[in-house]
Structures are given as C-alpha cells and as structure tokens.
Amino acid sequence: MKLWRKGIPFAVTTLVACLSCAAWASPPSSGAYVTDHANVWVQDQVGDKVGTVNMIMCIISSMRADAMVNHGPYVALIDENKCQGRGDTSKSTSNNAGASNATNYMFSVINATQASTDDPLIIKAWLHEEQEDNGSTQKSMIYAYVSASAAPSATNPNGLFQMYFCGEDTASPGTCVFKGSLQSDGNGLSFFNHEVRNGVQDTKLTLQNNPAQDSGLGRVSGVDMQGNTAVPFNYAFAYNASNFLRTDGSSPVCFDRDHTHGDISTWSYGTYNSD
Fold first, then answer.
1. Rounded mean pLDDT of the chain?
2. Average pLDDT in the 170-196 region?
3. CA separation for the pair 65, 78 (Å, rounded)
4. The pTM is what?
5. 74 neighbors 108 (Cβ within 8 angstroms)
6. Tell me, what's the pLDDT at 226?
7. Are the C-beta atoms of 88 and 45 separated by less than 8 Å?
8. Residue 48 near residue 88 (C-beta atoms within 8 A)
9. How far, CA to CA in Å, does 190 sit from each of 21, 187, 209?
10. pLDDT category, 266, cuts 50, 70, 90?
C-alpha cells in the first residue's frame, strides 16, 4: 500500500548554518543520486502490521526454493533491505537513500523437497538475523517450515501455503522469543505472531482481497508494548485503488492513496558526492 509516513524533519540548525554558504552544489544529473530508490511509508498501526506480512512474503520469495527443489540444502543470501521497506515501519529508521540502498544480507540455509508434482512443496529454512536495539545487536536464529500446495495464479495471487516459524535468541537457545504462522488460502491471508522479547506482544491479522489485489478488507488485533505498558488494539480496515480506511469501532480514519496528495516530511536522508 502506497501510504505516507510522517517523520522527523530536517534539522533546522543544519539549514540555518548553510544559509551562509557561498554556493550551493548542483544536484548530480546521473549516478546513485538519480537511480537510488526512495521508499515512503505511513506511520499507522494497521499499515505496520500488514507491512510485516509483506516483509515475510518477500523473504520467502527471495529464497527461490522453487528453483532448488530436491537439490539438497543450499545457502541463500537474502537482501533484507529489499524486504525491510515492506515491513513494520515502526522498527525502521530509514527512507532508503544512499547507504540504505546498499545490500544487507541475511544468511540462510534452505532445503526444498517435493515427493511428486501432486504433493506439496516443503521448505525448511534456517535464517540468521541481526537487529540493532538501543545500541546493542540482537542475534536470532529463525526456523521456518513452509508447505505450499499451489503456485501463485490469477485466482490466488499469493499461491496456497502454510508457514510456521520460531525465532530464538542466540544468547538463550531453546526458547522461541517469537513464533507464529502465516497462511494463504482461497479466502486470503491470515497471520499470527506471539513475541515475548521486550514484553509480551501479540498480533492477529486476516486479509481478504480480490485477485487483482487492488481492493480488500481485513482486521488486525493484538497487544503492543509502549514503554513498559501493554496496549491492546483492534482495527477493521478496507481499501481500494483510491483510499484506505481503518476504524477501531468508534473513530474511522480515511487515507488518500494518491501520493501527490500526501503530506511528506523527512524521516532520514542520504548524502552523495557531487560527482
């Protein structure tokens, strides 16, 4: 969903300091400054949770298990930056510019098997993840199991599959600090995640969309941590090509999906050489 995120504007002190500069450098007409892709988001609880599902599906797709069926275990390097922009924006600190366009690989070992063309594709994956949290690096081992019975099609654009996952903190193996499931069936997507890292957090999401994926509806509920306080949430939402609507049952909010109407501010930015 092409929604917009309001974030931290440029530092005013930086702007004031540059007012005395003798000359401004002209923007480059080619190179990374022109070709780098900029991602934009809306900081909205519903959009964040839907984005988490998008990120997981991006990671699954990046494994390319369909190309390695019955070839034994293999190593895949998954560029997290390509999928991170589709994830929970509350956990992201960039709008992809300069360095954030660089690759950031997640190391994974994957084994894809299929007994016959009539049997489901079974994917077993072990993924090494590192995340920065308050100045420290959290390392996790994610175990994933996927059973896919149908490839993406015009009727089922996400295919038909079931996925189960567990993430262990490498400092204390044997315990899932987060675990859940993601399923795509004839009705749409359903997602559940239970996390005990930094307090107990739960997310349950269902999404129904049409085959063209330009409209749909769903519900997301659960508990988030705000500081040391557990805060429940429960939203229904719907969208089409023009608008995105969400409501908690009493206060509906409608977003315009046309980016030309967006109120944009800078979350972060990159710097480039003049050449």
1. 81
2. 92
3. 12
4. 0.73
5. no
6. 85
7. no
8. yes
9. 54, 9, 12
10. low
In the sheet that 243-247 helps form, which strands lie side by side, from edge to edge? 74-79, 105-113, 121-133, 136-150, 160-169, 176-185, 188-195, 201-209, 216-226, 229-239, 243-247, 253-256
| Both structure tokens of 168 | 């262990």
The pLDDT assigned to 263 comes to 73
Residue with tokens 């702007």: 15
Check whether 128 has a pLDDT greater than 70.
yes
Q: Quick check: 14 pLDDT over 50? A: no
For residue 181, what are its two tokens? Answer: 């499931």
Least confident window among 111-120, 224-233, 259-268:
259-268
